[in-house]
């Protein structure tokens, strides 16, 4: 519940502080005194957008604070979600600077406006969820019936499955589009894949073939050179290997005469061994190299194919070509597998749809079960508030699956027992809408876990006995909820647990709005003024006293 509201430097309010009771709080005052300004300030700490033009003093900043006493379970999910510290006394502060910069705090922790708006849904109904304009809104009408059904678990289960169903539908549509697009390219991709598969290159093959062609094309030159080198190393009249062996032996004979000679002899021996190995490898290579015209033709054909494919696919290596082959293979396989994937998604859609239809049927049955008793009770209350001929009817039509079930819910209204029902938003007057809303709100309030309900002139267009009945309904509602009601009706003001009077006061050549809690005698006088004018008669005063003692 809202325990205290403090407002500084807002509109025509310099500073005021209001402590509210936990039951029925009534706010009265002359037209233009600033009653709605209080609600405007309150709406800022509930997440409304700020306008720097509302500053009373353009040199200072506007500060609005609301002190709420809350049950921790009531707001626990919000505080855990946003990692905020939770205390039993919840302080919400909103600051607006002259430059237009706005800041918001929950228990001194900065929050954004979106978070503030989310938090407000746990605390206060300020003609946002249940206002007269909302009566014509299909979502509102459905929410009213669902609040009376009060089976959130079933609805949550349905919505979770519907979310999965919507995702599967989205994936199915995307896959169909992908298949249609892929089918256009399938033939061409398959042609490219077949061409690469037929070429059947292995890794680095083109590069290896290019090196082989160089060898085959220069086979005679290679063999001549290798033969000459081998001959000079081993078979000449004085082979190089033999000369090195002799030189090494001569050096070795001097090993005892100079300390560096053994090292030189060792190195020369190493050279001899290395040249022996080289001559052996030369002989081996020479035996392997030979001119093969047929092989040259085969290599040239493979190279021509390879370079043509390089150019076609804009690559420079065999391995890049193989990567393209693998990618094409995957693309073709994916297209061929799309039908299987689509079939699986169709089966998943069918399964989820059957689940949804079963759950939606349960939801529909619950709604239909509540619709008629709800309409009957609303009609009883409408008669109580001065609309004895008015009838409300709830029309539930079963249609396509949607995020909230399969129902279209319409509140239909007949003001004069004509049995000609029409959508309530089209045929009900402003005063009728206010009273219909009050009746609906009084019925659903216990199912909607909002501790504070605020009515801004819910009594528009009524007076006399109807106004008294509205007061009775509000008084009854205040047994389980904190009610804050702005009214012009003395019959409603007389039912208040706390009566606040809003008035204008001139200070230092400035007109400001102030609020004070009325004593019992002040209440008698103000209610009498509401009954008969600025100077109430004795009869009006007596009537006012009777109103205050009649509950």
TrEMBL record:
Top-level division of the source organism's lineage: Bacteria
Coiled-coil features, chain-numbered ranges: 165-219
GO terms for biological process, alphabetical: DNA recombination; DNA repair; SOS response
This protein's record includes keyword Coiled coil: yes
GO MF annotation: an example: ATP binding
Protein family according to the UniProt entry: Belongs to the RecN family.
Name of protein: DNA repair protein RecN
Source organism (scientific name): Chitinophaga silvatica
Organism lineage: Bacteria, Pseudomonadati, Bacteroidota, Chitinophagia, Chitinophagales
Gene name as annotated: recN
């Amino acid at each position: 519940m809202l325990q205290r509201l403090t407002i500084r430097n807002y509109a025509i309010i310099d500073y005021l502080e209001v402590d509210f009771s936990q039951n029925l709080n009534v706010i009265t005052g002359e037209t233009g005194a600033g009653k709605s300004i209080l609600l405007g300030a309150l709406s800022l700490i509930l997440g409304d957008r700020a306008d720097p033009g509302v500053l009373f003093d353009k040199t200072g900043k506007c500060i609005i604070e609301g002190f709420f006493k809350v049950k921790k379970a009531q707001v626990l999910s919000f505080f855990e979600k946003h990692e905020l510290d939770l205390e039993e006394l919840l302080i919400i502060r909103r600051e607006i600077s002259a430059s237009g910069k706005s800041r918001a705090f929950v228990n001194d922790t900065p929050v954004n406006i979106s978070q503030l708006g989310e938090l407000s849904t746990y605390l206060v109904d300020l003609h946002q969820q249940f206002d007269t304009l909302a009566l014509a809104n299909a979502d509102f009408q459905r929410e009213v019936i669902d609040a009376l059904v009060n089976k959130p678990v079933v609805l949550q289960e349905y919505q979770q499955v519907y979310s999965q169903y919507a995702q599967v539908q989205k994936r199915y549509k995307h896959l169909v589009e992908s298949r249609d697009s892929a089918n256009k390219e399938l033939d061409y991709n398959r042609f490219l894949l077949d061409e690469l598969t037929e070429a059947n290159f292995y890794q680095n093959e083109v590069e290896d073939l290019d090196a082989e062609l160089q060898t085959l094309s220069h086979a005679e030159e290679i063999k001549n050179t290798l033969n000459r080198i081998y001959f000079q190393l081993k078979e000449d009249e004085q082979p190089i290997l033999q000369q090195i062996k002799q030189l090494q032996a001569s050096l070795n004979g001097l090993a005892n005469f100079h300390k560096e000679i053994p090292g030189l002899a060792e190195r020369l021996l190493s050279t001899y061994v290395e040249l022996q190995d080289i001559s052996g490898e030369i002989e081996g290579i020479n035996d392997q190299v030979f001119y093969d015209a047929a092989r040259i033709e085969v290599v040239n054909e493979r190279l021509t194919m390879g370079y043509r494919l390089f150019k076609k696919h804009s690559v420079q290596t065999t391995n890049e070509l193989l990567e393209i082959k693998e990618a094409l293979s995957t693309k073709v396989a994916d297209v061929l597998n799309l039908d299987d994937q689509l079939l699986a998604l169709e089966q998943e859609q069918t399964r989820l749809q059957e689940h949804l239809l079963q759950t939606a049927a349960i939801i529909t049955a619950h709604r239909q079960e509540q619709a008629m008793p709800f309409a009957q009770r609303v009609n009883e209350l409408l008669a109580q508030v001065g609309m004895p001929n008015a009838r409300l009817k709830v029309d539930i039509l079963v249609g396509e699956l949607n995020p909230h079930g399969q129902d279209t819910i319409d509140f239909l209204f007949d003001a004069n027992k004509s049995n000609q029902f029409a959508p309530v938003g089209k045929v009900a007057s402003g005063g009728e809408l206010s009273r219909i809303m009050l009746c609906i709100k009084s019925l659903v309030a216990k199912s909607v876990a909002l501790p504070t309900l605020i009515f801004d002139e819910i009594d528009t267009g009524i007076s006399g006995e109807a106004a008294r009945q509205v007061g009775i309904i509000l008084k009854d509602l205040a047994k389980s909820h904190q009610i804050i009601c702005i009214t012009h009706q003395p019959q409603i003001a007389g039912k208040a647990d706390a009566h606040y009077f809003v008035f204008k006061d001139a200070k230092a050549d400035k007109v400001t709005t102030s609020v004070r809690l009325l004593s019992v005698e002040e209440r008698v006088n103000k209610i009498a003024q509401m009954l008969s004018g600025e100077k109430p008669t004795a009869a009006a005063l007596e009537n006012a006293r009777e109103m205050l003692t009649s509950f």
